Amino acid sequence: MKTKPVIAAAATLVLAGALSACTGGGDDGGGQNNGGGADASNCTNTIPKPDLPVVTLWAWYPNSELVVDNFNEANDEVQVCWTNAGAGGDAYDKFQTAISAGTGAPDVMMVEADRIPAFQIQEALVDLSDLGYEDVKDNFSDGAWQDVSVGDGVYGAPIDGGPMGMIYRTDIFDEYGITPPTTWEEFEATAQQVKDAGGPVFASFAANQPAEVTALMYQNGAEPFTYDPANGGQIGINLNSPEIKEVLDYWDGLVEKELVGTEDQFTPEYIAGVIGGDYATYLSAAWAPGYLQGAGVGEGADAGVWAVAPMPQWDTSNPIAINWGGSAFVVSSQASDPELAAKVAFGVYADEASLDDGWQNQIIFPLNVNVLDSAEFQDYEVPFFSGQQANKEVYVPAANAYTGMVYTPLGQFYYSALTEQIARINEGQATGSEAADALQEAVVAYAEEQGFTVE
């Protein structure tokens, strides 16, 4: 059974993990409120069938209104009242306030997969295992379901993910006569070759990207956490394993040799460096082309120079696919009709038109296997990559091979602690192994303070 200190810890972690956000607006609509406390009389979208029961939805993707309109037009059982409550942290803060108050939550909400356990432990989410999961189970890989599961429960309907690849600049690779490295050993040797020839750093090891670094840990076979709420407040924490130390020591070495940069990513300065050719590669996810284009990459002197290759591996005979990011629709425990809300969670962003709009406009990388297996998706010549069939060559194989991660209610504190340790590595204050030991100590101590029993 969950203890109150553990539940309180989860609430604190959610509120501490705010991200930058945006808001949206539009026409008001109407409908019968059939669910949670969010107001279904003040929708951003117009509801075309107002006599049907209404499920409220918070979602922030740029094409959310189109997706909701597609669902409403096709559905004669339920209608969706959509609100953009802000992206990421803004929405989470509002949801947490509603959880604490016991009212005000939407029926369905978009949530990043790694945030699910912090809400689940507060009994704020509905287990979807018996509410339509079996009907759509085969539409997604085991890895996609693992990311939205907590123990034996399924708490999210997958939308998109971030299978990772190595984006690189063909002009820099051509100038220095190099090819995409297939192993991390080759990655370091190639980076050294470029540096010795007077070229740019090869990549970035950014302290503000702990989720990316966590994915790199998984690629080396690490298992940072074990967690099952059925075991009460027990949690397994293994952040200074040999596999994790090897990863952090490797990147520590690249930093020390000045083969990679240490600038924070997602900043104007970093983007200027990407455009200016300060980095030969960008290790990122399938959503990166859309993000980069939105930031102005590939529009000027750097147009037509981008390509993508599979991620380097520790062992090419045993390749491990990794993922960075991804979202799902969850059903709030405040929904008065969880079954109807689950129909929305599983049905919104599941029709062909919505999925096509998502990937064709590089808003999402869909995880639905009906899209991943389609010739149109696999053969798509990605404009950002000058017509390269990146889905077929890199992202679909990575998505299909990905086996998932274990997320816990400690996720946001862990990310903060890892950010601190990466900064210590980058500043020369700790080796990778020392940072791993400090990370283990900090997360274990915090977990115990919050009422967890560490295995």
What name is given to the CATH topology of the largest domain?
D-Maltodextrin-Binding Protein, domain 2
Query: Mind telling me the CATH superfamily name of the largest domain?
Result: Periplasmic binding protein-like II
CATH top level of the largest domain?
Alpha Beta
Structural class designation: alpha/beta
Q: Can you give keywords for this protein?
A:
alpha/beta; D-Maltodextrin-Binding Protein, domain 2; ABC transporter substrate-binding protein; 19 helices; three-stranded mixed beta sheet; Bact_solute-bd_prot1; 2 domains; about 450 residues; SBP; signal; eight-stranded mixed beta sheet
Descriptive overview:
The structure is a single chain. The chain has two domains: 4-161 and 324-386, 3-Layer(aba) Sandwich (D-Maltodextrin-Binding Protein, domain 2), CATH 3.40.190.10; 162-322 and 406-454, D-Maltodextrin-Binding Protein, domain 2. It is 41% helix and 14% strand. The protein has helices spanning 4-16, 64-74, 89-101, 116-120, 133-136, 142-147, 170-175, 184-196, 210-219, 242-256, 268-276, 288-294, 338-347, 352-360, 369-372, 375-378, 390-401, 411-426, 432-449; strands at 32-33, 53-58, 79-83, 108-112, 149-150, 153-154, 157-169, 225-227, 234-237, 281-285, 306-310, 323-331, 453-454. The strands form three sheets. Strands 1, 2, 3, 4, 7, 10, 11 and 12 form an eight-stranded mixed sheet that branches. A three-stranded mixed sheet has the order 8-9-13, covered by helices on one side. It has a two-stranded antiparallel sheet with strand order 5-6. The protein is globular. The protein starts with a helix and ends with a strand. The model is unreliable at 1-5 and 11-37 (pLDDT under 50). This is ABC transporter substrate-binding protein. Pfam families: SBP_bac_8.
